[in-house]
């Protein structure tokens, strides 16, 4: 800690000791606040969504945007809501997300692009609530809700 230097016209008085104590306390408090702020920033920066899996989204985008005809802007805007219900907690999945959840383990399969693609293909052949398959619906430019 830096040394606090204080000089007054009346050295070694009660006021001097008081002033030095106040300055030291303020410095320690500022140092403590910085450390707390740094820690909270670190926690905030390291926080990730608890249930959304970026690799699943990336493979969806690869299959349906890069290799398919789905609009990139529409997919980018929907992002997590392709599988999750908009406005709800991320553990709440829509029908499409529930089907993928049944086929994939979010921890084990996140690093397995082949398995993610297989799951996307299987779900694409399944019927959506509208009666058409998820694949037909997505190829028609409609995203799961």
Can you describe this structure?
- The protein is mainly alpha-helical and 145 residues long.
- The protein has 2 domains: 47 residues; 86 residues, no CATH class.
- The longest helix has 33 residues.
- The chain starts with 13 loop residues before the first helix and ends in a 6-residue tail after the last helix.
Tell me the domain tally.
2
Round the Cα radius of gyration to an integer and report it: 28 Å
Number of helices: 6
Overall spatial form: elongated
For the terminal residues, how far apart are their CA atoms?
A: 56 Å
What helical percentage do the residues reach?
A: 55-70%
- Sheet bearing the most strands, described? none
In the predicted model, the low-confidence regions spanning at least 5 consecutive residues are 38-50
Task: List the topology elements.
Elements: H1 14-46, H2 54-66, H3 72-78, H4 95-103, H5 113-124, H6 134-139
Short description:
The chain is mainly alpha-helical.
Q: Which key terms come to mind for this protein?
A:
145 residues, 6 helices, elongated
């Amino acid at each position: 800690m830096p040394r606090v230097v204080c000089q007054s016209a009346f050295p070694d008085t009660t006021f001097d000791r008081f002033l030095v104590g106040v300055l030291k306390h303020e410095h320690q408090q500022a140092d403590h606040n910085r450390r707390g702020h740094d820690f909270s920033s670190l926690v905030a920066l390291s926080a990730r969504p608890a249930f959304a899996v970026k690799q699943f989204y990336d493979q969806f985008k690869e299959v349906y945007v890069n290799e398919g005809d789905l609009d990139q802007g529409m997919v980018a805007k929907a992002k997590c809501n392709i599988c999750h219900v908009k406005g709800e907690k991320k553990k709440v999945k829509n029908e499409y997300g529930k089907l993928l959840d049944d086929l994939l383990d979010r921890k084990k399969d996140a690093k397995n692009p082949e398995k993610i693609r297989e799951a996307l293909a299987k779900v694409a052949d399944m019927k959506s609530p509208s009666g058409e398959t998820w694949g037909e619906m997505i190829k028609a430019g409609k995203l799961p809700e």
